[in-house]
Amino acid sequence: MRSSLRLDRRRFLLGLGGVTVALPFLESLHMPRASAGPDRFRFAFFVRGGNGVAQEQRSWIDGMEQVVEVEQFWPHELGALDTATLEGRDADRATSELAAFASRLNLVRGINRPFDTPSCGHSDSIVQLLTSASIVSGSSNDAAALGPSLDWRIASQLNAPGRDPMTLMAGPTDAYIKENLSWRGANERTPAERSPLNQYMRMMGITSAPPEIQERIMTRQNSVNDLVRDELQSLLSRRDLGALDRRRLQQHFEAIRDTELSLLSCESMDPMFMSRLAAIVDVEANDVRPDVVRHHMEVLALAAACQYTHTGTLQVGEGNDQTQYEIDGTRLPRFHWISHRIYSDGAEGETIPDAVSLHHQVDRLQLQLFRHLLERLDMFDSPYGGSLLDDGVCVWVNDLANGPPHGGTNVPWILAGSAGGHLRTGQYVDAGGIEYNRILNTIGAAVGCTKDDGSPLDDFGDASLAGGRIDALVAG
Question: Domain range spanning residue 79?
Answer without folding.
Answer: 41-55+65-195+286-473
